[in-house]
Structures are given as structure tokens and as C-alpha cells.
Amino acid sequence: MKFTDVIQSADWKAEKHVPVISAPETVKAGEKFNVEVCVGKEIAHPNTTEHHIRWIKLYFKPDNGKFAYELGTYQFDAHGESAEGPNKGPVYSEPAVNAFIKLSASGTLLAAAYCNIHGLWESSKTITVQA
């Protein structure tokens, strides 16, 4: 079995589990820019003790490179848990993150997200770097 056998992909406008990558299509080499990754942009994903997004991972694969680079792992640990019972807690982590990065080469941003009920989901976005 391989990751490709278990990781799912779909159009984020119709599927609430897909991580949505928001970033410019073109950036200048070496200049900092913001990448937002969230789950549930068009269709809200539940955020309950029983059903939630646990983490998002963000990677970059340069066009001229063999390997992807991990940019960050973002854990979401509060889902309404409490000693009083499920969904009675005072705080919920929302599955969204902002990462500020600099690139020196064009390539592809890749995001993966994990739902505790529905497993692994992925998406990607191409970024062009101008000199």
C-alpha cells in the first residue's frame, strides 16, 4: 500500500475536507509572501470533539528539484473537549494557518490535511517566481 492509495483529492468548492491553498500565482524571488491554508472554505467542516481536522502540512516542490521541502506542520488540538463531556469545552481550534515564505525557484505548493473520521486529503497550487 502507498500514500496514493489512501490520500483523497477533490474540488474544494464541493468537498469540505480539501485543504485550500490561497497564495499569489506569481511572486518575486526572495520576497516574503503569505500562504493561507484552510479546510472548509466553501463548505464548513465540522469542528467538534467527534469530527474535526487534526492537522495540516504544507510542502514546496521546486520545478527543477527531485524532492519536496516541508514548510510546516500545523496541529489543531482543541475541539471542545472538557471534563464535563464532548463539546462542552471553552475553546475550539479552527483548521486554518498563515505561513510566510520566500522562494527562489518556481514550483508547487502541496497541502495535506487529516480528518479524524474521513482520513487524508490533499491539494496543490503552482507558484511562478520572477527574478
UniProtKB/TrEMBL annotation:
Q: Which UniProt keywords apply?
A: Electron transport, Iron, Metal-binding, Transport
A single GO molecular function term of this UniProt record: oxidoreductase activity
Q: Which Pfam families match?
A: Desulfoferrodox
List the InterPro entries hit by this protein, alphabetically: Desulfoferrodoxin_Fe-bd_dom, Desulfoferrodoxin_Fe-bd_dom_sf, Desulfoferrodoxin_SOR
Q: Gene3D superfamilies recorded for this chain?
A: SOR catalytic domain
Q: Which domain of life is it from?
A: Bacteria
Give every Desulfoferrodoxin ferrous iron-binding domain span: 10-123
PANTHER family in the cross-refs? SUPEROXIDE REDUCTASE-RELATED (PTHR36541:SF1)
Name the family the entry cites: Belongs to the desulfoferrodoxin family.
Q: What name goes with this protein?
A: Desulfoferrodoxin
Species annotation: Lucifera butyrica
